[in-house]
Amino acid sequence: MIVITHQRDKCIGCNYCIELAPDRWAMSKKDGKCTLIGGKDRKGFYTVHATDDELEANKEAAKVCPVKIIHVKQI
Amino acid sequence: MKDRKIELMAPAGNFESLTAAIQAGADSVYFGVEQLNMRARASINFTLDDLEEIAKRCGENNVKTYLTLNTIIYDHDLSIVKTLVNRVKEAGISAIIASDQAVINYASSQGVEVHISTQLNVTNIETVKFYSHFADVMVTSRELSLRQVKKITEAIEKEDVRGPRGELVEIEIFGHGALCMAVSGKCYLSLHTANSSANRGACIQNCRRTYKVVDLEDGHELEIDNEYIMSPKDLCTIDILDKVLDSGISVLKIEGRGRAPEYVYTTIQCYREAIDAINAGTYDKDKVDDWMQRLSSVYNRGFWNGYYLGQKMGEWHDTDNSIATQKKVFLGKGVHYFPKTSIGEFKIESHSLKKGDKILITGQTTGVMEMEIDQMMVNDEFVEEAKKGDNVTWKTPDRIRPSDKLYKIVKTEEKGKLPVQV
Fold first, then answer.
1. How many independent structural domains does chain A possess?
2. What would the pLDDT profile of B359-397 be if each residue is shown by its tens digit?
3. What is the CATH number of the domain that holds A60?
């Protein structure tokens, strides 16, 4: 299992995470920021549990995020 | 020189800087909200809900307000662009500074005044004519010389180029602040090295770092005197401001939405005095020396006149970050203000404060207040020094507030001598 965290309010809507992990990320047309699909909001930090097969793509997404607000952890 | 009113435009990254700009005599302010502005990476940015408050505070002081919406825009941004433009209209913000045609087109269709950002690199009269269908004010490219700017302003008059308002198009140029090592907005270093696009307001400033040049064939490092080979000095025009104004511009813009409120205060105050001095015919070398000294006291990377006088090569910065002659050290926060006696109470949370120290108080409503301590009290007794943990009071020139921050101003070289905190 992995945990993905997203500090959404700092997102600048660059779209890279979607390019790298399109199954887990989607762009909100409402505010132009990225949304972590399935993410639950805890004081601005969105978190979701996912299976290991999503690890690589989301690690890449975390790596390229220009504002470093994506974190992926294996549990 | 033609007698025309010059608008002095100040950067505002937050409410503290906004208040400082108003206090220092700015005619207008520019600022960004949310993520679609060239300082999106900055930790503090205004939000959409701040627009009304910004319009209110500035309106009360007759200061115009401009929202920067000048990043490149993707399809997924179009909806937030519309929301921003609509909110600008509702809140009564004076205009939008735009570079993407999507923003220009929508704002103009909604009757919101548009200004053309320097990101569009306007460098000739034909481009001015093109954008005059949408915009009343245009920022020319920062790489133009004053002679080139003057040619454009003269052509606007001669060819009667008018914007949507029906008035002659106004030209705005940068007067002071950081410069880009590339033609503004045409740099992809940050994107290539860190995926962090300067054109989405997330520049990581590769150019401000030190570099080595290595011969890949034999591994020799080339000797270069200045390792900061890409970091331009900051633009400063206060010593040539008469020539700058003579180029026929209408708006003088100061860079620095990422800078501290006292930077905004000092810079705007100096340029305000300089513009007024030129209008009054009292602009002279002594005054310039004084302004230069004050400008050097706040964050800077060394000054040069930019490309305005037509130098072919840039001038490069050769030290680490700022060479400001003074720095601020955080001391503590405001506690209470006693209006009848004009006494402010502060709690010292760090370092110590001595009689004779220069201090700086900043706050969202207070703006910037600078003063020297000539008398202060701790526990109802006059003291020479207030230490960490003390609640100290003294007479302040204006009201202070509990959210205000208190700093001590120290000379840069003395900073290392500050007592270590235990």
1. 1
2. 999 999 999 999 999 999 999 899 999 999 999 999 999
3. 3.30.70.20
- Do the chains contact at B200 and A31, CB–CB below 8 Å? no
Q: Is residue B31 within 8 Å of B54, Cβ to Cβ?
A: yes
% of chain B residues with pLDDT over 70: 93
Q: Is the CB of residue A32 less than 8 Å away from at least one CB of chain B? A: yes
Residue B236's nearest CA partner among B187, B184, B301 is B301
pTM: 0.83
Q: How far A70 CA lies from chain B's nearest CA (Å)?
A: 14
B7-179+232-304: what CATH class?
Answer: alpha beta
Range of the domain at A39: 2-74
CA dist., res. B370 & res. B415, Å (int): 19
Cβ contacts of B81 on chain A, cutoff 8 Å: 32
Q: Where are the beta strands (DSSP E) in B154-239?
A: 170-177, 213-214, 221-222, 234-236
Point out the residue among A16, A30, A31 whose CB comes nearest to the CB of B195.
A16
A 5-24 → B contacts, CB under 8 A: 11-16
Q: Where are the domains of chain B?
A: 7-179+232-304, 189-222, 326-417
10 Å Cβ neighbour count for B52?
Answer: 14
| Cβ-Cβ contacts under 8 Å, B35 against chain A | 11-13, 32-33
3-state secondary structure B245-269: HHCCCCEEEECCCCCCHHHHHHHHH
Class of domain B326-417: mainly beta
Res. B347: pLDDT tops 60: yes
Closest CA of chain B from A13, distance in Å: 7
For residues B152-191, one letter each, b for 16 or more C-beta atoms within 10 angstroms of the residue's C-beta and e for the rest, the string is bbebbeeeebebeeeebbbbbbbbbbbbbbeebbebebbb
